[in-house]
Amino acid sequence: MRNSKAQHQAKIEEACKQLEANPNLKILTVARVHGLNDKTLGNHWHKRTKFHAKAHATQQHLNQEQEEVVVGWINKMDDQGTPPRRRHVRDMVEYLIKREDEQKAIRLGKHWTDRFLKRHPDLAHKVARPINKDRALAQEPVRIESFFNRFSEVKSRFKIVDDDIWNSDEKGFAIGQAIGGKVFCRAGKRNARLVQDGGREWVTLVDTISAAGKSIPPFFVYQAKSQRESWHDYEERDEATFSISSTGYMHKRLSLKWLEEHFAVYCPPSSPSAYRLLLLDNHTSHQDFDFYNYCWTHKIQLLFFPSHLTHILQPLDQNPFGTIGTYYRQQVVTEAPCREVNSKVATAPQHSK
Question: Which of 154, 157, 166, 212 lies at a CB distance of 3.0 to 4.6 Å from 162, suitable for a disulfide?
Answer without folding.
Answer: 212
